[in-house]
Specification:
Radius of gyration of chain A: 19 Å
Shape of chain A: elongated
Number of domains of chain A: 1
Helix content of chain A: over 70%
Order of helices and strands of chain A: HHHHHHHHH
Largest sheet of chain A: none
CATH topology of chain A: Tetracycline Repressor, domain 2
Largest interface: A-B, 42 and 42 residues
Number of helices of chain A: 9
Strand content of chain A: under 5%
CATH superfamily of chain A: Tetracycline Repressor, domain 2
Number of strands of chain A: 0
Oligomer: homodimer
Amino acid sequence: MTQDGRRLRGQRSRETILAQAVGLASVEGLDGLSLGRLAAEIGISKSGFFAHWRDKQELQLDAVDWAVRQWREHIVVPALHAPAGVRRLFALHQARLRFYAERVLPGGCFFLAVQAEFDDHPGAVRTRIVQALHNWEAFIRSLVEEAIALGELDQGVDPAQLAYEIEALGMAAVPHSRLLDERLAFAHARRTVLQRLRGLCPNPSLLPED
Amino acid sequence: MTQDGRRLRGQRSRETILAQAVGLASVEGLDGLSLGRLAAEIGISKSGFFAHWRDKQELQLDAVDWAVRQWREHIVVPALHAPAGVRRLFALHQARLRFYAERVLPGGCFFLAVQAEFDDHPGAVRTRIVQALHNWEAFIRSLVEEAIALGELDQGVDPAQLAYEIEALGMAAVPHSRLLDERLAFAHARRTVLQRLRGLCPNPSLLPED
DNA sequence: AGACTATCTGAACGATCGGTCGTTCAGATA
DNA sequence: TATCTGAACGACCGATCGTTCAGATAGTCT
C-alpha cells in the first residue's frame, strides 16, 4: 500500500466521527443519535457520512467497536499493570470509576446507555452489544478465577456471581452520580467492592483499608 | 361531584393511555416513545392525546407518576407484609426481582430505561425522575435503619451504602437477564443480596439458606 | 328542546428524520 | 497532461415527529 493522502484524510474523518458518535451516543443512545446533529457538531455535511458508511446501522456497529477499544485502553490495560490477583481485580474496578468520574464520555457510560436501549431491539447492533458485554463479564470472571488460583480469594467464591456483583456495583455508579449525589455514589461504589474483596481475601492487607 | 359519564370515560382513557405509555417507555424510553405509535397501539387517534395533556412533556410527567404508583403496588406494598427488619428488606428485593421476571413491563424496568435517558437531559421530567429515585433509595435506607434498630443487622452497617448495594444488584438484573442469561442473572441478583444480608445478620436463620 | 362541555377525530402544519442524487475537488496513476 | 478515485458537498426525497385546529359526538344541565 502506497501512501494515499485521500485515504488518510478519510481515515482521520472516520476516527473523529466515531469518537464524537460514541460521546453523543453515551448521552442520547445509539438510536437517539441523529446524523444531522452529529454532523452539525463536527462541522461536516450530513451526506458526507455516506461516503464512509452505507447506512446508520453500519455507523452504529463501528461505534460499538470503537467504544470497546476505548474501554480496553482506559480500563482493561491499566488494570493489567497491577499485580495479578485481588489487587488487579480492584484496580479494574477503580479504573472504571475513574473513567466515569473524569467524564471521559459526556454521558458517563456508552454501554449503560446502549444496553438499556437495545435489550429489546433485536438486530445486528444488539448482537454486537451482547458480545461485548459477554466478553467483559468473562474477563472479570477470569480475574476472579485467577485470584482464587493465587489463593487471594476464598475457594468457595462463585466467580460468576462475584463478577456480577462487581459489574453491578460499578455500573450503578453512573446514574447515581448523575442523578443523586456524585461524591457519595463513587464512594459507595468503591467501598462496597473494596470491603467485599477484603472480606473474601485471606490476606486483606493486599488491599487498602479504605 | 355528580357522576359524569364523559369525565369517567376520559379518566378511563387516561388510565389506559398511561399504562400503555409506561410499558412502551420501558422499551423505548420516555423520549423514544412516539405519540403516533402509542396511539396506533391503543387504537385511538394521535390528536386525542391533546384533550388530556397539553403536550408530550405533560404526558411524560404523568407517566413517571403512574410508574411510581405501579412500583409501589407491586414492590413496596408486598414487602410491607413481611415482618419488619431484615426479612422485610429481603422481601423488597425479591418482590422487585419477581416484578422483572414476570415481565410486568415489556421493557423490564421503566426506571432503568428512563434514568439512562434523562441523566443528561435537564428539565421537569428529569427533576421528577430524580425525586422518585431519591424517595426509593430513602425507603430502602429506612428499612436498613429499621433492621439495625431491631438488632437484625450489625451496628456498623452504613445504611446508605447497603441501600446502594441492594439497589445496584437489583437494577443490574434487568440488562443481564435480557442480554445474557436470564436464569443466571436472577439467581445472582438473589443470592448476592441474600448472602450479604445473612453475613450482616446476627441471626441468619431469619433468612432462607439459599 | 337548547346551551354547554368533555372527549375524540381527521386533516393539516412546520420541523426533522434517515437516505439519495448529481456534483465538486484533491490527490494518485499512467 | 489526461484519467480515475475517494471524500465531501448542497439540494432534495418520502416518512415521521409533535402540535394545532375546526368540527363531530355524546353526556349534562337549565
